[in-house]
Amino acid sequence: MTGKEREDWALHDREAKALISVMLTFQVACLAVTMLWL
Questions:
Q1: What residue ranges are annotated as transmembrane (predicted)?
Q2: Residue 1, H or E segment
Q3: What integer pLDDT is reported at residue 17 of this predicted model?
Q4: Residues 12-27, buried b or exposed e (16+ Cβ, 10 A)?
Q5: Rounded distance, CA 25 to CA 11, Å?
Q6: Which residue positions in the chain have pLDDT lower than 70?
Q7: How far apart are CA 10 and CA 3, in angstroms?
Q8: 2 phi/psi in degrees, rounded to 5
Q9: Calculated CA dihedral for residues 2, 6, 12, 17, nearest 10 degrees
Q10: C-alpha 26: how far from its chain's center?
Q11: How far apart are the C-alpha atoms of 31 and 38, rounded to whole Å?
């Protein structure tokens, strides 16, 4: 694995983690809204 490939992979990994955290935050927000609504 070259340095460039490793950099690209690290960037992709960080993007994936950011996306996952956004999705989780969104789910929790939806759950909270649902709880308050009912």
A1: 18-37
A2: none
A3: 94
A4: eeeeeeeeeeeeeeee
A5: 21
A6: 1
A7: 11
A8: -80, 165
A9: 160
A10: 10
A11: 11
Dist. CA 5–CA 8, nearest whole Å: 5
Tally the C-alpha atoms within 13 A of residue 1's C-alpha that lie toward its C-beta: 7
Tell me the residue type at 36: L
User: What pLDDT does residue 1 have?
Assistant: 58
pTM: 0.62
Residue given tokens 């690209």 in the structure block: 8
Tokens of residue 28, six digits: 């929790």
CA 38/CA 30 separation, integer angstroms: 12
The amino acid at residue 10 is A
